[in-house]
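re: ur msg from earlier - yeah i can do the NAP complex, just paste it... oh wait u already did. ok heres what im feeding in:
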Amino acid sequence: MKPDIVVTAHISAPGTMPTLEREFTAHHLWRATDEKSFLAALADRVEGMAVGGHRPIDAALMDALPKLKVIANFGVGVDSIDLAAAQARGIAVTNTPDVLTDEVADLAIALVLDAARGMSAGDRFIRAGKWTKGGMALQRGIRGKTLGILGLGRIGSAIAAHGEHFGMRVLWTGPRPKPAARWTYVADLVELAREADVLVVACPGGAATRRLVTAEVLAALGPEGMLVNIGRGSVVDEPALVDALKGGILGRAALDVFEDEPKVPEALLAMENVVLTPHIGSATIETRAAMGQLMIDNLLAYYAGKPLLTRVV
Ligand code: NAP
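and the outut:
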């Protein structure tokens, strides 16, 4: 008999939903009209959960499934899962690292280039019929500029390597220096922002990083500076970002993630010096398929009594 699992959201990855349906008896929480009775009916037998989207996976949800033993997240960021609550209940949590690293880093550097060189702005310029009336204003190059990375993990390191390839000097900050890292560590984020022309946020979300990028950090980046966020919206003080861009305190921004997705602050929509993408860091057919497979492989490992492949807690 196939094991019963709960799937919290539709996961938009080629092959993932059909494979989940093939390997497991998948119960779709996102389709339930009455979640309480939906979960109560499964409480005696569900040990696995496949998690997509940003719905909080909190203690109450875990308590509704007392046999739950493994939560397999679709994505590397696990900030929507209450990890302490999972640990306290002996529930393992897995994620999908590595398979998405290069894709997200590619988007980050594309955002740096777009915000600096004005590709999206140029596209709008042509479509608005402005080119026939004169050329577009000169933009900024990135070669020889300083790239600051907030969070030198897998993705941050790949972005740093890209930055080097584009002739940028790379500095970074994080909770602790890494002796093996080949880029210079700057302990203080404000100091890093003062040194950097471009600051890329590549750290996780959650309480520890909430609004690390303050008005002071944005002011230190300055009117010629650029903020790029591919980490989590919660890491940036979004109202302060809007104010800094409005007031010319910060020059440009390129954002893939936002505090309250899919809501984007209205003020940003009208700004020519801002590039916006709808959380698409990992959103390619190839990478989403690999993420879906890794999430499923973790569930299969659990049910086969094997070690989990990519366990977070
Ligand atoms: P990772 O390898 O765990 O790297 C995270 C890095 O952030 C680590 O180096 C960590 O430092 C650092 N960090 C932790 N707390 C920090 C803090 N307070 N200040 C500064 N740095 C801090 O994870 P990853 O695979 O690179 O992924 C990073 C994040 O990218 C994910 O958590 C997710 O939020 C985001 N992401 C976004 C997209 C997208 O579509 N935009 C896609 C995938 C991932 P230590 O090494 O010292 O612990």
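cool cool. The pocket of NAP is lined by residues 76-77, 97, 100-101, 104, 150-156, 174-176, 202-205, 208-209, 212, 230-232, 256-257, 279, 281-282 (CB under 6 Å). ping me if u need the other ligands too
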